[in-house]
Design brief:
Layout (H helix, E strand, L loop, with lengths): L22 H13 L2 E5 L6 H11 L8 E5 L9 H8 L9 H9 L4 E6 L5 H14 L3 E6 L9 E5 L22 H13 L10 H10 L4 H8 L7 H17 L6 H16 L2 H10 L8 H8 L5 H13 L4 E5 L2 E5 L2 H12 L4 H21 L6 H10 L1 H10 L4 H13 L1 H7 L2 H14 L6 H16 L3 H18 L2 H17 L3 H18 L2 H17 L3 H16 L5 H16 L3 H17 L3 H17 L3 H16 L11 H16 L1 H12 L3 H8 L8 E2 L6 E2 L1 H11 L4 H8 L3 H15 L4 H14 L2
Parallel strand pairs: 1-4, 1-5, 2-3, 3-4
Antiparallel strand pairs: 6-7, 8-9
Helix pairs in contact: 1-2, 6-8, 7-9, 8-10, 9-10, 11-13, 11-14, 12-15, 15-17, 15-18, 17-18, 18-20, 18-21, 20-21, 21-22, 21-23, 22-23, 23-24, 23-25, 24-25, 25-26, 25-27, 26-27, 27-28, 27-29, 28-29, 28-33, 29-30, 29-31, 29-33, 30-31, 30-32, 30-33, 31-32, 34-36, 34-37, 35-36
Protein name: LuxR C-terminal-related transcriptional regulator
Organism: Rhodococcus jostii
InterPro entries: HTH_77 (IPR058852), P-loop_NTPase (IPR027417), Sig_transdc_resp-reg_C-effctor (IPR016032), TPR-like_helical_dom_sf (IPR011990), Tscrpt_reg_LuxR_C (IPR000792), WH-like_DNA-bd_sf (IPR036388)
Length: 773
C-alpha cells in the first residue's frame, strides 16, 4: 500500500555539480511521462542522459507516493541478475520464490518511478523486465537511459541533443551576450569552479563560443575543456582543440562526428596529463563503481608512496577525470563510464591489465576476509557500510575468479567470507549464484573452502525456501567432510543439517545437530561459528518447547556479542530474551529487551530481526490493552515479511502466537478497524515502522518556522547533537542507529528548516535554547 506523504522517499543521489539548462528537454520528458509509462532517453556517450534523467526524477518526486528509485546498471554484466539489481536498489531482501514474482508483488500496489540507468549492454533482459512491470504494476512508471531504445510496446523515446550553441557567425545582440546558450553557461560555471572569478566578457565570448562549437555542445567534453583554464587561457584552449580536431578529421576514426569530437577531447585531456597521471588514470579503471584511497594505494601505486598516490588522485580530480563523493562518512572516488572505457583501452596497451585485475581481486578478497574475521565486534556496522559501498568491486573480483580452476579457490574463500554480509542484507540468491558458479569451475579435490561453500549454499537455499537443494548440499558437504577428516568441516555440516531440520520443522533433530556443532566450535574458540550454532539451537529449542535451553543459548549469545560490541546477533539475542520474558508474563521487561533489540536491528538495517521485534511488540500491545496499536504493528511486521524479511524463518512458532493475538485484537476493535490499522502498518517502510514501534512518532513536535514545519522527537535529538559538533558517525554511535540513518535525519532536518548547512542547524538550536524560559 502506498504509505502516503512520502514524496522524498527514494535513493536519488545528490548532484555534485550544478545542473545547467535543458529546460525544453525536462519539460518534454515530464510530458512524455504523463502520457507513457516507459520513457527512454537515448544519445551518444557524454551527452548527459543520466543527469537529465535524475533531474527529471527529482523534479517529479512529489507525484510518486512510494518514491523515485534509481537503479544503476552500468556495473552489472550478468543478464540474470537484473531483477536482483532492482530489488537491491529498492532495499528489498531476497525472499523465497522467483525474484521477478517477488518484485512484481512488491510493486503492484505501489505508485513509484524507477530510473533504469545505463541499460545499453543489457537491453534484452531490461526490456523484458520493463514489459513485465508495465503489464503487472499499473502505477509504476519507468524512466530509462540507454544508447539504444528497448523497442517494446508503449515506449516513448527521446533522443537527448547536445546543449544549445550560438551559430558560427552569431554575435552579441543589444548587449545581451551569448551567455544564455546552454553550452556557454556550462563552460562558464565549470570554468569559474576551476578559476574563481572567471566570467564571459565581450572580449572572450567569441572564443568561448568557438570552443563550445568545436566540442559540439557535448557536456562531458565541455567540462573537460573548462578545467584546463587552470593552466591555459581560453585562446590557448581553442588553439589546441583546433589543431587536434584538424588532425582527427584527416584520419579515419570510423565513428560519427560527435563521437569523434568526444574521443578527441578525451584524447587531448589524456595527452595533457603527466606520465604518472596517465598511468594512474589507466590503473584506476580496474575499479568498478568507485574506490577509496586505501584501495588505490594497495592496488594501483606502482611503487609510489601513499602520499604520492594522494597527490596524483587529487590532480585527476582537478582535471575532472575523477569525481569525489562522500559515502558513509568516507571519501570515495569514481570515474564516468566514458572516461573509464577510454582508460581501459589505454591500460590494455601497457600489458599491465591482467596483473592489475589479479591485484584487484586479491585486495578485495583480503578486505572481505578481514570483514569476516572482525564481524563479531563493534566494527560490524562500519564493515557492513564498507561492503555496501564495495559491492561492484567485490562482484568484479568474483567474476575474475571464474576464469579458471586455479583462480576459483580464491573466489570460493571470498564468497564464503561474504556469508555474514549476505545474510544481514538478505542477498540470498546472490550468494547462491556465486557459490554455485565457483564450485562448478573449481576442481574436485576436497578442501575446507569447498565444504564451507556447501555449508553456505545449504543454509541460503533453506532460507530461500528450497529444502530439497538444502538437503543435497548437506549430503555433499558431509561426504566431503568425512573424506577430509576435518572436525571443523564436519561441525559446519552438522550446523547445516540443523538449519535444514529447522526449516523442515524437525525440531528435535535440529537440536541434536546444533548441540553437536556447538561443542566443536566452543572447543575451537571460533566465536562467529559458535554464534551461528547458538542462534540455531535457540530457535530449534523454542520450536521443541524446550524454553529453558532456548533462553540459555540466548543468554550465551548475548554475553558473547555484548562484550564485543556487536550489533546484529545481539539484536537477535535480545529479541529471543524478550520473547522469554513475555512468555513468563514479564511484559515490562520483555518490552524493554525487545525495544533494545529493535534499536540494534535498525542500526544495521537488519529487517528480519526488526520484523521479529515488531511482531513481539504487537503481542505486548494487545496484553497492555492497545489493540489498535497492535494491529498497526502486525501490519508493519507483515509488510516486512512480504518484502523477504519474515521472522518466522528464525522462529517458526511466531505464527502460532501471531494468530492467537490477531484474533484477540480483532475481537477488541472489530474487523473493519483492525484492517484499517493493519493496512496503515503494512504501508510503512522499515525506518518508519521501527520509529513507530519505538514510540518515536506521535510525540509533541517543536514548531520551527512560519510554515509550521515540525521536527520529530528523534530529529530534535539529532539537531541537538549536530549543535554539539558531532559528525554523522558520532551521532549514529550515540543513538545506536546506522550512520546512513543519522545522515537521513540530518537531511530531513535541513529540508524541513529550509537550511543548507549544519552550521545553520546549530544556530537554530542555540536560538531555541535562548528563547526557552
Amino acid at each position: 500500500m502506498p504509505s502516503g506523504g512520502t514524496a522524498n522517499v527514494g535513493n536519488l543521489p545528490y548532484e555534485l555539480t550544478s545542473f545547467v539548462g535543458r529546460r525544453h528537454e525536462i519539460a518534454e520528458v515530464r510530458r512524455l511521462l504523463s502520457v507513457s509509462r516507459l520513457v527512454t532517453l537515448t544519445g551518444v556517450g557524454g551527452v548527459g542522459k543520466t543527469r537529465l534523467a535524475l533531474r527529471v526524477a527529482a523534479d517529479s518526486s512529489r507525484a510518486f507516493d512510494d518514491g523515485v528509485w534509481s537503479v544503476g546498471l552500468g556495473e552489472l554484466y550478468d543478464p540474470g541478475a537484473v531483477v536482483d539489481g532492482v530489488l537491491s536498489a529498492l532495499n528489498l531482501r531476497e525472499g523465497p520464490g522467483a525474484p521477478e514474482t517477488q518484485l512484481v508483488e512488491y510493486l503492484t500496489p505501489r505508485k513509484l518511478l524507477l530510473v533504469l540507468d545505463n541499460c545499453e549492454h543489457l537491453v534484452g533482459p531490461v526490456a523484458n523486465l520493463a514489459e513485465t512491470l508495465l503489464r503487472s504494476c499499473p502505477d509504476v512508471r519507468i524512466l530509462a537511459t540507454s544508447r539504444e531504445p528497448f523497442g517494446i510496446g508503449g515506449e516513448a523515446v527521446l533522443r537527448v541533443p547536445p546543449l544549445t550553441l550560438p551559430e558560427a557567425r552569431q554575435r552579441s545582440v543589444a548587449g545581451g551576450g551569448l551567455g544564455h546558450y546552454e553550452a556557454m553557461t556550462l563552460f562558464t560555471e565549470r570554468a569559474a569552479t576551476a578559476v574563481p572569478g572567471f566570467e564571459i566578457t565581450e572580449s572572450n565570448e567569441g572564443v568561448v563560443a568557438a570552443i563550445c562549437r568545436r566540442l559540439d555542445g557535448l557536456p562531458l567534453a565541455i567540462e573537460l575543456a573548462a578545467v584546463r583554464l587552470r593552466v591555459m587561457s581560453v585562446e590557448q584552449i581553442l588553439h589546441r582543440l583546433t589543431d587536434r580536431f584538424t588532425l582527427l578529421t584527416t584520419g579515419s576514426r570510423g565513428a560519427p562526428s560527435r563521437q569523434q569530437t568526444l574521443l578527441g577531447s578525451i584524447d587531448w585531456s589524456y595527452d595533457l596529463c603527466t606520465r604518472v597521471e596517465r598511468e594512474m588514470w589507466g590503473r584506476l579503471t580496474v575499479f568498478a563503481g568507485g574506490f577509496e584511497l586505501d584501495a588505490a594505494e594497495g592496488i594501483c601505486s606502482g611503487g609510489m608512496t601513499p602520499e604520492q598516490v594522494v597527490d596524483v588522485v587529487a590532480s585527476l580530480i582537478d582535471k575532472s577525470i575523477l569525481l569525489r563523493e562522500e559515502t558513509g562518512g568516507a571519501a570515495r572516488y569514481r570515474m564516468l563510464e566514458t572516461l573509464r572505457d577510454y582508460g581501459v583501452e589505454r591500460l590494455q596497451e601497457t600489458g599491465e591489465f591482467a596483473s592489475l585485475l589479479r591485484r584487484h581481486r586479491d585486495w578485495y578478497a583480503h578486505l572481505v576476509l578481514r570483514a569476516e574475521s572482525d564481524w563479531i565486534s563493534s566494527r560490524q556496522l562500519s564493515w557492513t557500510l564498507r561492503l555496501d559501498a564495495e559491492q561492484s568491486n567485490i562482484v568484479a573480483g568474483l567474476q575474475f575468479c571464474l576464469t579458471g580452476p586455479h583462480e576459483a579457490n580464491a573466489g570460493i574463500r571470498m564468497a564464503g567470507a561474504m556469508y555474514p554480509y549476505w545474510r544481514v542484507r538478505g542477498k540470498l540468491r546472490e550468494g547462491m549464484r556465486w557459490l554455485a558458479q565457483l564450485l562448478a569451475v573449481r576442481g574436485d579435490e576436497p578442501g575446507l573452502e569447498q565444504i564451507t561453500a556447501l555449508y553456505v549454499l545449504s543454509v541460503l537455499s533453506g532460507l530461500h525456501g528450497d529444502a530439497d537443494a538444502s538437503a543435497i548440499y548437506v549430503q555433499r558437504g558431509s561426504a566431503l567432510a568425512a573424506q577430509l577428516g576435518d572436525r571443523t568441516a564436519a561441525a559446519l555440516m552438522d550446523d547445516a543439517a540443523g538449519q535444514h531440520a529447522l526449516i523442515t520443522l524437525d525440531a528435535r533433530a535440529a537440536c541434536e545437530h546444533f548441540e553437536s556443532s556447538l561443542a566443536v566450535f566452543r572447543d575451537d574458540g571460533n566465536v562467529l561459528y559458535m554464534i551461528w550454532s547458538l542462534s540455531g539451537l535457540a530457535a530449534a529449542s523454542d520450536a521443541a518447547e524446550d524454553w529453558a535451553r532456548s533462553e540459555e543459548c540466548q543468554r550465551e549469545m548475548l554475553a558473547l556479542t555484548e562484550s564485543r560490541g556487536e550489533f546484529m546477533y545481539r539484536g537477535w539475542a535480545l529479541w529471543g530474551a524478550g520473547m522469554g520474558a513475555w512468555r513468563r508474563g514479564e511484559y515490562s521487561g520483555a518490552k524493554e529487551l525487545v525495544m533494545q533489540g529493535l534499536q540494534l536491528a535498525r542500526s544495521v538495517d537488519d529487517r528480519t530481526g526488526g520484523a521479529g521485534c515488531i511482531e513481539v511488540l504487537s503481542w505486548i500491545a494487545v496484553d497492555e490493552g492497545a489493540p489498535r496499536r497492535a494491529a498497526t504493528l502486525m501490519g508493519a511486521a507483515e509488510g516486512l515479511a512480504r518484502a523477504g524479511c519474515s521472522p518466522s524463518i528464525l522462529y517458526p512458532r511466531l505464527l502460532v502466537h501471531h494468530d492467537r493475538y490477531e484474533e484477540k485484537a480483532r475481537g477488541a476493535i472489530g474487523d473493519r478497524a483492525f484492517e484499517a490499522e493493519f493496512g496503515r502498518g503494512l504501508g510503512m517502510r522499515f525506518e518508519e515502522a521501527a520509529g513507530y514501534a519505538l514510540d518515536e512518532r506521535g510525540t509533541t513536535a517543536a514548531a520551527v518556522g512560519p510554515g509550521s514545519t515540525t521536527l520529530t522527537r528523534r530529529e530534535r535529538q539529532v539537531a541537538e547533537l549536530v549543535a554539539e559538533g558531532l559528525t554523522n558517525r558520532a551521532i549514529a554511535d550515540k543513538l545506536v542507529i546506522s550512520q546512513r540513518t543519522a545522515q537521513g535525519h540530518v537531511e530531513h532536518i535541513l529540508s524541513k528548516l529550509g537550511f543548507t548547512s549544519r552550521t545553520q542547524i546549530a544556530a537554530w538550536v542555540i536560538e531555541r535554547r535562548q528563547g526557552e524560559p
